[in-house]
Amino acid sequence: MSRYKIDLGKSSEGIAAGYLEKNGYKILECNYKSRFGEIDIIATEKQTLCFVEVKSRSSSGYGLPKETVDRRKQHKISQSALSYLKARQLMNQSCRFDVLSVFQEASVCSRFELIKNAFELAGNYTY
């Protein structure tokens, strides 16, 4: 992955956290890592625990950011979320998976598209 893409991703996650806070989310953790993968932002909105995947693009030439959250990515996020819930003994906590698209075009302010409940828990898991 190029340095540009890494920097774009990191700056987008910071901008995304600010956007979420302005929209009523309380940020609990950023860049949670498990043996299954990473969750960009873990937050609460009202009484719901939200696992937020942040996707960014500097243009729409290669498609929309949200389109990159495919089944494989959903599966990894689901596994990491279950790991988080189990480690913190929150298995009965109400939760959902959100996707936040961030468009960072050079001459324009960032634009956001928040998809709440973007996908269901992917796969059958036993814990």
Helix content: 25-40%
Helix/strand order, N-terminal first: HEEEHEE
Biggest sheet, spatial arrangement of strands: 1-2-3-4-5
Main sheet?
5 strands, mixed
Strand content: 35-45%
Mean pLDDT: 85
Overall number of structural domains = 1
> Which CATH class applies here?
Alpha Beta
CATH architecture assignment = 3-Layer(aba) Sandwich
Find the structural class using helix and strand composition. Answer: alpha+beta
Report the CATH topology name: Trna Endonuclease, Chain: A, domain 1
Number of strands: 5
Q: Outline, from the CA principal axes?
A: globular
Q: Radius of gyration in whole Å, from Cα?
A: 14 Å
Individual helix count: 2
Poorly predicted runs of 5 or more residues = 3-9
In whole angstroms, how far apart are the ends? 34 Å
Describe, in plain words, how this protein is organized in 3D.
With about 130 residues, the protein is of the alpha+beta class. The protein is about 30% helix and about 35% strand. The protein is built from 2 helices and 5 strands; from the N terminus they run αβββαββ. The chain has a 5-stranded mixed sheet, sandwiched between helices. Strand 4 and strand 5 form a beta hairpin. The relative contact order is 0.20.
Please write out the topology.
Blueprint: H1 3-22, E1 25-34, E2 37-45, E3 48-57, H2 71-87, E4 95-103, E5 111-119
Parallel strand pairs: 3-4
Antiparallel strand pairs: 1-2, 2-3, 4-5
Question: How would you summarize this macromolecular structure in one to three sentences?
Answer:
It contains 2 helices and 5 strands, in the order αβββαββ.
